[in-house]
């Protein structure tokens, strides 16, 4: 039943023209464009003024001057003059090595199908020349470029889909903090800054994903979320194609929206009845680039594939974050992980792209085996090479009810594997040196057709 429900909500859907009311019942009835569920893998990019100090996390400004976190205060005292302000960092956000075509080429090679760029984080600095940014943007100070536009143009030369992250709140915006001090009974920030800014962003760059964040201090009514989304779905230039997430008020997450994110690095480990996304970071600590990261902070390729398998098997998409430097480079270790992932997907992608969650997500007998399906074929993603080359699985017994079931390792399709069925299924793996895939291996299980 859960599998059928997921297909109903997340499977191939046809976009239809409709008018949506500014209510969650109406907005939630809008079909999710089917490219998103098919795509499975995206790249997230956190890039902003916080990339200049590149210390701690993308919350640098707030940690330094909001809650006065000791390590951030100490860092500034030791390295900058007492008169130095956060705004002074912006002129060093130069992006002189930013080559959008080079980035996009890397993302294509990674096997990703969509890209989401932070157009504005909680610091309020926009990566496009926004009329509403009061000169706090990448065109006026820093790179003197329209970074959103540059990347959008490069992405649209490929088959990748282009999306934009946008933060609702801004830590130190005076209008926002006035509304906050009024317990959100006033809406000066929303009316004069937020809504006009989001409409400008959508009208100018026409993203296929609008990834909202920074909603956690106020209800959706303050953000006027349903009114904005009704405009987005009814009147905007992307009304037929845009996809949104669920971060539109602290009462909304994991309840309403096009796809659910629920929490950062959300990975429930079980099937959900609504399309969802695991937004996660290759740097386990931070979304933005950190100069002080150490090797143990970085996902290994095996850890990344484990997270991918768990996510896709449970019906989610995975959005993999990298944080570029202030100069506009993606550091070698991030490049390496993305290229390794792309190599794995180039062999095993048929078990990932356009797949569905099976009736069982992970094997009950042997841990580290996760399933996807493209009827009638079932894929078993094996995350650890089996001891003595013998894999025992219990959740796929129904597929082996006749002797005609065929099992191969993807990449080695010309060498079918032998198997036996006696309460559990025992599959004999070949010599590991003969297998093309690395880090994890996918069994393609094709039941005998009757």
From TrEMBL:
InterPro entries: FUC_metazoa-typ, Fucosidase_C, GH, Glyco_hydro_29, Glyco_hydro_29_CS, Glyco_hydro_29_N, Glyco_hydro_b
Any GO BP annotation: glycoside catabolic process
Residues under site feature: May be important for catalysis: 279
Record flagged with keyword Glycoprotein: yes
Signal peptide stretch: 1-18
Location of the Alpha-L-fucosidase C-terminal domain: 361-446
Keywords: Glycoprotein, Glycosidase, Hydrolase, Signal
Pfam families reported for this sequence: Alpha_L_fucos, Fucosidase_C
GO terms for MF: alpha-L-fucosidase activity
Domain of life where this protein originates: Eukaryota
Protein name stated in the entry: Putative alpha-L-fucosidase
Organism (species): Zophobas morio
């Amino acid at each position: 039943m859960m599998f059928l429900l997921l297909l109903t909500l997340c499977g191939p859907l046809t976009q239809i023209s409709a008018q949506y009311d500014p209510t969650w019942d109406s907005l939630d009835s809008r079909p999710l464009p089917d490219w998103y569920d098919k795509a499975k893998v995206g790249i997230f990019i956190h890039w902003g003024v916080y990339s200049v100090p590149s210390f701690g996390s993308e919350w640098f400004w707030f940690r330094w001057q909001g809650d006065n976190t000791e390590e951030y205060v100490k860092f500034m005292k030791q390295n900058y003059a007492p008169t130095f302000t956060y705004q002074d960092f912006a002129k060093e956000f130069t992006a002189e090595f930013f080559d959008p075509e080079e980035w996009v080429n890397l993302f294509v090679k990674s096997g990703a199908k969509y890209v989401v760029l932070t157009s504005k984080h909680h610091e309020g600095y926009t990566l496009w020349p926004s009329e509403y940014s009061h000169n706090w943007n990448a065109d006026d100070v820093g790179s003197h470029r329209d970074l959103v536009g540059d990347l959008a143009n490069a992405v649209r030369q490929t088959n990748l889909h282009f999306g934009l992250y946008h933060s609702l709140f801004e830590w130190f915006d005076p209008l926002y903090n006035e509304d906050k001090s009024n317990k959100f009974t006033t809406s000066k920030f929303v009316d004069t800054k937020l809504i006009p800014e989001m409409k400008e962003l959508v009208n100018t760059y026409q993203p296929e994903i609008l990834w909202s964040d920074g909603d956690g201090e106020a209800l959706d009514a303050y953000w006027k979320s349903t009114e904005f989304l009704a405009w987005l779905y009814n009147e905007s230039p992307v009304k037929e194609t845009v996809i949104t997430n669920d971060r539109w008020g602290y009462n909304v997450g994991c309840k309403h929206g096009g796809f659910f994110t629920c929490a950062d690095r959300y990975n429930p480990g079980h099937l959900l009845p609504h399309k969802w996304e695991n937004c996660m970071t290759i740097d386990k600590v931070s979304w933005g680039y950190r100069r002080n990261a150490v090797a143990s902070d970085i996902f290994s390729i095996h850890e990344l594939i484990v997270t991918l398998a768990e996510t896709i098997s449970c019906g989610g998409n995975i959005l993999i974050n990298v944080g570029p430097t202030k100069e506009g480079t993606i550091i070698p270790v991030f490049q390496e992980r993305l290229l390794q992932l792309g190599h794995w997907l180039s062999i095993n992608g048929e078990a990932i792209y356009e797949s569905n969650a099976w009736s069982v997500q992970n094997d009950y007998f042997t841990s580290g085996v996760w399933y996807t399906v493209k009827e009638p074929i079932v894929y078993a993603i094996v995350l650890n090479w089996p001891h003595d080359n013998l894999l025992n699985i219990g959740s796929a017994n129904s597929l082996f009810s006749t002797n005609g079931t065929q099992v191969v390792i993807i990449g080695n399709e010309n060498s079918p594997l032998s198997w036996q069925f006696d309460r559990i299924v025992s599959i004999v793996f070949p010599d590991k040196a003969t297998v093309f895939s690395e880090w994890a291996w996918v069994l393609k299980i094709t039941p005998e057709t009757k």
